[in-house]
């Protein structure tokens, strides 16, 4: 994703008609099937000039030929530049993700990805007490 290499992203996804892939991008509906999932990545990559992922809180569970990886994706991204700027405005967001991988003869492939946005903390310790 960071390199904008759609062919590599395509190669990462499982290609097995007997086990359709699924993907949920933050705020999107469930996408099912390799074609639909790859179209979503093509759209994201076509509309994102810059993206960088910092993965934290990584946990891996392995059971035979299936692995589950959970993590927090700290994402910095930017859209198209405006007014002759080199890069559009940068946005940061946190996404918690679950990725299910399956081992194949070609190596590990993504079977399912689910990303959910982390909502900003709205607790304000300095808020006035309204109970009195």
Description:
- Helices cover 15% and strands 44% of the residues.
- The protein has one domain: Roll (Nuclear Transport Factor 2, Chain: A).
- It contains 2 helices and 6 strands, in the order αββαββββ.
- It has helices at residues 6-12, 34-46; strands spanning 22-24, 31-32, 50-63, 66-78, 90-104, 107-117.
- With 132 residues, it is of the alpha+beta class.
- It starts with 5 loop residues before the first helix and ends in a 15-residue tail after the last strand.
- This is Nuclear transport factor 2 family protein.
- It holds the Pfam family SnoaL_3.
- Residues 2-119 form the SnoaL-like domain.
Give short descriptive properties of this protein.
Nuclear transport factor 2 family protein; Nuclear Transport Factor 2, Chain: A; 2 helices; SnoaL-like; six-stranded mixed beta sheet; alpha+beta; 6 strands; NTF2-like_dom_sf; 132 residues
- Count every beta strand, where a strand is a DSSP E run of 2 or more residues: 6
Q: Taking all residues together, what is the mean pLDDT? A: 90
| Percent in strands | 35-45%
Return the CATH topology.
Nuclear Transport Factor 2, Chain: A
